[in-house]
Task: structure prediction
Amino acid sequence: MEYSPREMMAIAAGRFIKDGDILFAGTGVAMLAATVAKRIHAPRAHIFFETGGIGPTLEELPMAVADPRVMAFSNLNAGLVEAFSYVANRRLHTIAFLGAAQVDKYGNMNSTVIGDYHAPKVRFSGSGGACDAGSLASGYIVFMQHGVQKFVEKLDYLTTPGWLTGGDSRKRAGYRRGGPIAVVTNLCVLKFDDTTHEMYLAERYEGVTPEQVQANTGFALDVSRSSVAEPPNAEELRILRDDVDPQRLILD
Amino acid sequence: MAEHNGLDGKLMTIGEAVERFVRDGCQIAVGGFTITRNPMAAVYEIARRRIKDLHLVAHSNGQALDVLVGAGCVSRLDIAYGGNGRFAPTCIRFRKAVERGELLVEDYTNNMMSLRFLAGALGVPFIPSKSGLGTDLIAQEGFPAELRGSDGVPSKKVIVIDDPFGNEDDEVVLLPALTPDVSIIHAQQVSTDGTVRIKGLTFADLEQCKAASAVVVTCEEIVPESYLRLDPDQNALPPFLVDAVVTVPYGAHPTACRYFYDYDPAHLNHYKAVAKDDETWAAYLDEWVYGVESWDAYLDKVGGAQLARIRSNTVAGYALGLDRR
Result:
């Protein structure tokens, strides 16, 4: 069955979600993945947004985290301070879905600038709630298009804290939990070593070689542990295409 | 009802409200978030009056931020996110202004900005957070040293300290409070005594209003006081915090206002196309901001059929099945 890299990304990310997890969704593919996770993999997961929308039914796909569709038929509607009290809540297992412009081998991310911060070549949106989710949530999953411009040795600006400089540096910086769990790209799924917290290739999509992944990564990557990812099945694709994004607002 | 007695002279036109509360160089917060409930009628009026050197303090006010920046009204910006969802992953005029060095930017996060408003509301000078340790949000200051310590700019962006309670080896980030000169929000309803009702997410609107020296509320409609008193659990702000009330139907267009109308995908897609180029952007401002003589004229330009298309479904609170491509 034919499927696009973006469809594979949404479904691959959804597989990390356990029933009962509390999901913090950002914009774009992240939103798609959270919705897919709830419809397919974890029906008892709860989705919420940093804007304060808690547990909406998401009958139509939101175009932004402040879309009125995140307020419709929800458990409750609140504001930012309340939403971050769920992100940071010690009783909850909160998983965030985030995107960025650059990521490094420890899963730190840049969504602020390319070039010098004071005279940037390219300005991006900035943190929004990404740094907060990276700081406070139980973990996060990253979405990226794979390329050497995006997978870099050194970030131009560190917006969202991942495993910082690896090892136990995140804990030493003052964080009590969290950190990146996986990076999901158009080629593969990358995870982090339990001890060094360096990124490694975990699963490559059908037809993708480890060499291809390394060639698109701007730092040396351990590709020795990889296997081929299970492709999406017909039912997963049907739900994604017919129920989640029928207007192909994000899939295209 | 017709006399709005309880509003005590607070009821005014958008021109009067902006004239009275928004001045060159003042610090301003606007309500809403990306594509919802931005006080656009007020934003257009500020742009039309060519107000300059505003210090905008914002978490993620997409469309309002981009028009204010694009019209040259802003010289300093505290911000968490300059984007507009799928319509502009980075706000287009904001991006150009920063890349051209026309704007001083201080980056924070959504949690940090909300907490800074909360601190201002509570009257405390700073508030701690666990966001951003070890990141460039803490390491890099955007505003130059000579701006610091006056004019509403704190002496430092943030200060990192060990938890003073000494419970464990544990650092916290201290964030300076924000107390804007004025906060402008758009709400669904204001009552004849000045009570404000917001439907749907409140974002940081309430903290912004409680932290500000003056509060301007534009609204879809004014309703009898007795109606908002029937269900006070639904109300957002008390009358004594509100300084100006302006009735502007569709006053958040092209952003959404839950239960009244959705965002306008046609307008936002048009905006995305014209904002990329300086000439077409100037023409957009002439056509939609400077050259529009009244709010009625603005709504006529949007068109009755389009306003009907984006009208919210009464139950869902947004336009079900709206073509958003």
The longest strand of chain A covers residues 94-99.
